[in-house]
Amino acid sequence: xxxxxxxxxxxxxxxxxxxxxxxxxxxxxxxxxxFEEYFDLFNKIEEYENAExxxxxxxxxxxxxIGRWFTKVRMIGLDTPMTVHPTKPAEHFGKEALxxxxxxxxxxxxxxxxxxxxxxxxxxxxxYVWVPVQHDNSTKYVLFxxxxxxxxxxxxxxxxxxxxxxxxxxKDAQDYAxxxxxxxxxxxxxxxxxxxxxxxxxxxxxxxxxCIHYAENPExxxxxxYGNVAVNLKGWIITDEGAKHVYIFGxxxxxxxxxxxxxxxxxxxxxxWMRAYIWNNDGDIGYLYDSDGILIDKYSY
Length: 301
Fold this sequence. Notes:
The protein has two domains: 2-186, CATH 2.40.50.90; 198-300, Sandwich (Immunoglobulin-like). The chain has four helices and 22 strands. The chain has helices at residues 2-13, 94-105, 144-150, 164-179, and strands spanning 21-27, 30-35, 49-58, 61-66, 69-75, 78-79, 109-113, 125-135, 138-143, 155-156, 198-199, 204-205, 207-213, 219-225, 231-232, 237-239, 246-248, 253-254, 259-264, 272-274, 285-289, 295-300. A five-stranded mixed β-barrel has the order 3-4-5-8-7. The longest helix is centred in the middle third of the chain and has 16 residues, at 164-179. The protein is globular, with a radius of gyration of 20 Å.
């Protein structure tokens, strides 16, 4: 096992990444990659709360106790493939992400710190989760939200802003995991959407329909940019099967690794396509066209 770790460290040390990699052993059979410089992040935290993890609900959501308060925590800046849904199967690499969280966090005493908003739209507590580890003969704290991204168990959730310093670090960590084909990035199929690549002005465009959540109110379709350059979606078109419903984007720049969601249904309140249902529960197809009418991607379920 030591030889394996040595090989990993040697390989990582020659990569074009400014931080110093370390392999952390959480249990005898659970290790993960982190970067030594990121241990310093916890030293800047002025206020935090002690908590104990009761169970993992999903790769980015856990239940904790804070004193006598039992509450759900959504990890800031992290988006993992979904595993819990009443009508849909687990998304690609979702079970692996959930199992990783279970192994490391279940029953663990952690510290929670917060950002601009302490609660999310679904009344979930939004937090950074700090896990104690032994490193260089002392106790250090790993930012678990970041650890998930570094090891390819989730995406950097940059759609809703959080600390500027953390946003850059999370994006860099995602770039690293993607470049090294780690975890969910090892598969060429992400969120069940085939990557549609075509020449662009600079490099290649890689904008896809990453998912359609059809059995919800509001329902939504999600467009992600997996490329390395920003893409302006002005004039781009989304339709359902048969083009019964059509949406044309206005001036919207989709940055690398960002996504946008269009909501529909009676309870839609933001980024509204229409306040009526669009997506058929029995199956449908979403089509994405660029401003020249070229089919960029399609997503069926």
